């Protein structure tokens, strides 16, 4: 079994691959694979002609982030000790992959670890996706050191440490292959968004830990597939957040959370509507309706009775209260 593989999921990435893939090839000691999610652009010919050293897995359909990785990584089962999942729009730094793998070697109780994730366009600023390590509040809302809601902090070395977190970002995460396959990977019902948080929650319920290693940094463009303001992304985040909570919380606790989240998010839907953003307003409603239609397809986590101890390890119980009501906009304020 080889030590590690960097695995990039690609869908119509002909514009970003020439920008970001060279840094991966130049700065990585791992094998580099690309899983292509049935791209309709010239991604395949680009990879074959300009990056022949990259090993390619071609899927017959677009299975989204979750299904794409699940299907693609089946081809690599039992070949690598570590899998490093990387977005196609991430620039990496020298020895980034080996430093993450070494950290996991030195911390066997951890299943996965993410690096410090900075913005590619504002390089002294944290990136939205993962930033300086991710946490969940009691309603399942994710927030990060370096990013709360849409407010991003500048990087001044304040998160250069290594800590235990609630979740590692799918933009860049190293994971032990044994842990990934034992959990049967991502939940393909999610298609895209929140699937890495769900996987990390399941790993924590099984007794494993999730890490952040701030000595390694990467730069993420973000929004290469869907803009953060996209109604489709809003819909997926709403639906998948509810799905994650339903799977991993006890039923009484889930329905309590559902009522409170529903009240808050229907208020946000009304706010979108009053501002004239009817697509976003409908996206929130559709997220709830589709969750209720499909919740019986979700497989509950048999270990979720531990949810009282595992839901959150961050500093606040209700991040929206601190952000919107108390006006605390940065992690250090919390």
From TrEMBL:
Q: Which InterPro entries match?
A: Glyco_trans_2-like (IPR001173), Nucleotide-diphossugar_trans (IPR029044)
Q: Return the Pfam families for the record.
A: Glycos_transf_2
Report the coiled-coil segments: none
Keyword check for Glycosyltransferase, yes or no. yes
Quote the Gene3D superfamilies the UniProt record gives. Spore Coat Polysaccharide Biosynthesis Protein SpsA, Chain A
Name of this chain's protein? Glycosyltransferase family 2 protein
Q: Which family does it belong to?
A: Belongs to the glycosyltransferase 2 family.
Keywords for this protein: Glycosyltransferase, Transferase
Glycosyltransferase 2-like domain segment(s): 6-111
């Amino acid at each position: 079994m080889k030590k590690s593989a960097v695995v990039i999921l690609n869908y119509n990435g002909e514009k970003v691959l020439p920008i970001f893939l060279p840094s991966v090839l130049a700065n990585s000691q791992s094998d580099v694979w690309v899983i292509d999610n049935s791209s309709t652009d010239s991604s395949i010919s680009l990879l074959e002609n300009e990056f022949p050293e990259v090993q390619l897995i071609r899927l017959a359909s677009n299975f989204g982030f979750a299904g794409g990785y699940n299907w693609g990584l089946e081809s690599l089962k039992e070949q690598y000790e570590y899998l490093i999942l990387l977005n196609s729009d991430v620039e990496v730094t020298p020895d980034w992959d080996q430093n993450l793998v070494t950290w996991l070697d030195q911390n066997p109780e951890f299943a996965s670890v993410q690096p410090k994730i900075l913005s590619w366009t504002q390089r002294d600023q944290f990136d939205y996706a993962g930033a300086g390590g991710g946490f969940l509040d009691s309603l399942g809302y994710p927030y990060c050191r370096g990013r709360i809601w849409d407010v991003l902090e500048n990087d001044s070395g304040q998160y250069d440490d290594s800590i235990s977190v609630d979740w590692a970002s799918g933009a860049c995460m190293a994971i032990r292959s044994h842990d990934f396959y034992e959990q049967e990977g991502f939940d393909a019902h999610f298609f895209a968004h929140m699937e890495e948080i769900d996987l990390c929650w399941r790993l924590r319920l099984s007794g494993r830990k999730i890490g952040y290693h701030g000595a390694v940094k990467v730069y993420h463009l973000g929004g290469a597939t869907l803009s953060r303001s996209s109604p489709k992304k809003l819909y997926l985040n709403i639906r998948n957040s509810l799905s994650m909570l339903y799977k991993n919380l006890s039923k009484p606790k889930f329905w309590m959370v559902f009522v409170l989240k529903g009240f808050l998010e229907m208020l946000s839907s009304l706010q979108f509507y009053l501002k004239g953003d009817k697509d976003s307003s409908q996206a929130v409603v559709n997220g709830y309706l589709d969750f209720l239609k499909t919740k019986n397809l979700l497989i509950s986590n048999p270990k979720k009775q531990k949810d009282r101890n595992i839901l959150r390890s961050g500093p606040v119980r209700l991040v929206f209260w601190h952000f919107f009501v108390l006006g605390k906009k940065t992690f250090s304020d919390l």
